[in-house]
Amino acid sequence: MTDTNKTDRHTIDINALGKKTIGIVLAGGRSSRMGTDKALLALNGQTLLQQSIDRLQQAGCQQVYVSGDYPGTLSVPDQSANRGPLAGLQAVLKDERIQQCQGQALVVIPVDMPTLPAIEIKRVVEHREDFVAFKKSFFPLKLKLNTHLVQVVDDLLANEDRRLHSIKALLEHLSTLWLPLPEQASLFANVNTPEQWRALLRHKSAQAPSK
């Protein structure tokens, strides 16, 4: 296994934002804990999916693909049901449109991280390392598209140990540069349940200026 204990050395690639960067929104899965499709939940008049696409574009992604079946987007339906985000990523990596982008940076975020700022997504883009992620939250993460990445994903999902079928396991099998979470770590929180969604709406409502 490669070294997974690297930390942020502030090795910024000043040319990174000038290169083609591809965004990926992980939006597949059943949203079973939420009870409805999280990607289509509306916040401030926009779906979480559209907000995720917009943030990736704001962070410098020229194209944004969606893991899941969503008409009107560059979507890639899951090839295997109920196998989690890593299987969704695998489907995107094998899409012929993505296969033509070998050597380019992929920036991946989940659809259920609605308070993630675009500036934090840009942080992973700016690093010259091939594989970059945030400690604890993992997302947003940067992956260099190459045959090694695809092979690692394939090998993990082919393993009978389902504990390896995860984004965490993928990052542990790559030479990942780990960035520390900022002081406002709550910005990286996922919204997975109706209770968490209602808490987010209450928080947003409390922040809104009074009329």
TrEMBL record:
Coiled-coil boundaries: none
Source domain of life: Bacteria
Pfam families recorded: NTP_transf_3 (PF12804)
Single Gene Ontology MF annotation: nucleotidyltransferase activity
Catalytic activity as recorded in UniProt: Mo-molybdopterin + GTP + H(+) = Mo-molybdopterin guanine dinucleotide + diphosphate
Compartments in which it is found: Cytoplasm
Sequence positions that bind Mg(2+): D112
UniProt EC number: 2.7.7.77
Primary location recorded for the protein, binned into one broad class: cytoplasm
UniProt comment concerning the protein's domains: The N-terminal domain determines nucleotide recognition and specific binding, while the C-terminal domain determines the specific binding to the target protein.
Record-given protein name: Molybdenum cofactor guanylyltransferase
Source organism (scientific name): Corallincola platygyrae
Gene name of this polypeptide: mobA
